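Hey, can you fold this one?
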Amino acid sequence: MFGRIHFISGLPRAGSTLLAALLRQNPRFQASMSGPLAGLFGSLLTEMSARSEFSVFITDVQRQRMLRGLFEQYYADEPAEVVFDTHRSWCARLPALATLFPESKVIACVRQVSWIVDSLERRIRQNALQPSSIFNYTTSGTVYTRANGIAGPEGMVGYAYDALKEAFYGEHADRLLLVQYETLVSDPAKALAAIYDFLGETAFRHDTEHVHYDATAFDTKAGTPGLHEVRPKVEAQERPTILPPDLFRRFENDAFWCNPKLNTRGVRIV
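Sure. Predicted structure:
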C-alpha cells in the first residue's frame, strides 16, 4: 500500500492530466486523471451524517477510520510510495483532508479562464457529431449557453473556480501550490522542480519529449473523444481563440492568482 498521499485539483483544462502523466514517470509515484474517490468520499460522508437515523452510532473517530479506510482500500494494491489522487473537488475539502492526512498537500492546476472556456468549446466543435456528457448530451445550445452552463456555480468551471478560491483564501492555504498551465507547458522543468520542492521529494529527471497518457475509453464514453489527450512533447502552442470577442473578454479578469495583492495567504504559485 502507498506510503503518502497528495492531491491534484484546480481548474479543468488546466493541465492536471498532463501533470499526472509527467509525475507517473517517476517509479515512486502514481498519478492519474480524475477518478471515483472524491465521489465515494462525498457519498460516505453524507451517509454518516445526521441525515441517517443511525448516525448516532457513529463517532468522529469512526468517521475518520472509515474515510481513511476508503483511500487505503482503494489504493491497497498500489505499490507506489507516493499517490496523487486527482479531482476538482479536493480544493473544497481541505479541512477534511488536513484531518485525515495531515502531511498531504494539494497541487492546484490553474489557467486563464478565457482559455479554459475556449479549450472546452474547441473540443466540443471537434466532436460536432457526438453530443457530450459535459452538457448532458444536449445539442441545441450555442457557444454562449455552453459557456454560461460551465461557468455557473454548479458548472464544470464555475464549481472548480469557487473551490479554488475557497482553498486559496482558507485556513489551510499553506498546503496549497498553484501550478499555472502557462508555466507547465512553457517551462515544465521549472514547474516540476517547484512541485518536488513543495512536497519535499527528491528531484527526478522527467522526459518532457516523450509523455504518454491514454484515456481513450473514458473520453469516448463521455461523448468527448480527446478530452484528456496528452501530446507527446510538452510545449506551448500559440493559437487564436475561437470564442466571440465579447465572450472571451468576459473571463479575462478572473485569474485572481495573478494579482500579488490578492494573495493574502502567501500561497506558492509557479
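Strands lie at 4-10, 29-31, 82-86, 106-110, 176-180, 268-269. Let me know if you want another pass with a different chain boundary.
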